């Protein structure tokens, strides 16, 4: 089975391919991408071309559902859903932080990503299982359910938590491993964890120059 993996929940644009029969995987990652919308489809096309494959060779799609910023998640999930629908193949959503944590061999792990607004998205893990989160909080207000051995957090975020520091992004192998490809996927549900930055404007008050008209 050839599975396309996508994650746009962090600043890194992540695409990859996994052959579940052979265990082979290939990643195409654009670090610190500020143009997920413009770069995602070309990144997927380049990934397929490098593997001498086309969209017709795909058997499933796995996409990170966050937590992450509203716009970034929408881009990745909408693209994954569109590819799956066009090909008539399943699309599975997985938690981005679970895929990051799976890259760390330590017993107790904290995964934190940039939520902007001086906040972080976070989740903790012990023995490979999530013990808290995902949630969003200011770094100073973070309360952990247990101590951790390794903290995955972007370098620019000041986090007062003891533990070895790493800065990891999800990869195709872990994204696909987080999905149960043997079952029918549930509907994609994004983990926004808070309202988007964009808000519907308040309706403007009616001008006193406009008369009331009874249309009944």
UniProtKB/TrEMBL annotation:
Protein name per Swiss-Prot or TrEMBL: tRNA threonylcarbamoyl adenosine modification protein YeaZ
Signal peptide segment: none
Annotated Gcp-like domain residues: 33-146
PANTHER family reported for this sequence: TRNA N6-ADENOSINE THREONYLCARBAMOYLTRANSFERASE (PTHR11735), TRNA THREONYLCARBAMOYLADENOSINE BIOSYNTHESIS PROTEIN TSAB (PTHR11735:SF11)
Region Disordered: start-end pairs: 195-216
